[in-house]
Amino acid sequence: MIAELVRKIQEKNAPVVVGLDPNLSFIPEQILREASRAKAEGIFTDDDLHTAGEAVWRFNKEIIDAVADLIPAVKPQIAMYEQFGTPGMIAYWRTVRYAHEKGLIVIGDVKRGDIGSTSEAYARAHIGRTAVAGHNIRVYDADFATVNPYLGTDGIKPFIDVCNENDRGIFVLVKTSNPSSGEFQDVLTKDGRPMYELVGEKVAEWGRLSMDGQYSNVGAVVGATYPEQAKRLRELMPDTFILAPGYGAQGATAQDLAGFFKADGTGAIVNSSRGIIAAYRKERYSKYGAEGFADAARAATIDMIEDLRSIF
Question: What does pTM read for this prediction?
Fold first, then answer.
């Protein structure tokens, strides 16, 4: 699967993934009104969760329509859907399928992690198939899933097995973009090395179990907010594809990302979520207004692509 992601990135010359993290505060009133049974007032009734789920789906669909020809992939963050219960998860399911219809690769940002049969169940639900009544059914059907490595190989190996069975991939959390990530990830081990380096080395080891062309289906999440650490991790993980969150809203710039890529310009894909899907709220794109939120998202995506191209 990683080979397909690399192909799509090169085809569009855009190492960009749009994060579909639709907090209700980002969704314009007209979408909420359309989704609500109380359309005139835009007030949720006792069917609130169904209305929220429908609003999320409608919002995502317009964003996808606006950017699908520009980018190779989208990354829905599952917590933004889980908060609305079953209707939210239906919106997630519909979003994944619609993105596939538009030719996009889907990175399910689910951050799962457990051991044994539990880890396998997570993997089958999100990137594999579940056996039911003699049929192997794709459930959420993402192409990649993000995975927490805290439980070690016992937690990762079931995901790798499912990747190999289904031509899918994972991105393992190595050095995350949030400010407090260093509380654990930067702690020095007994040999004086930060923990994230050990995790990076383990990711490289796991990756050799699922190679797909130049890169492994076992990728790494490395925050764009930590460019110096990324350079070191790129050395430790030469065959690992990097998912880099933190561009834009979290403060990382294109120049910060140069070390994430290899000399041939491959090796990483950069995520922007609210910087794109809520672009209409920024002064730079305010001319589009709330009704033009999808057009604003398209303009922000084009600007991001051009910005990233400047580092090569």
Answer: 0.95
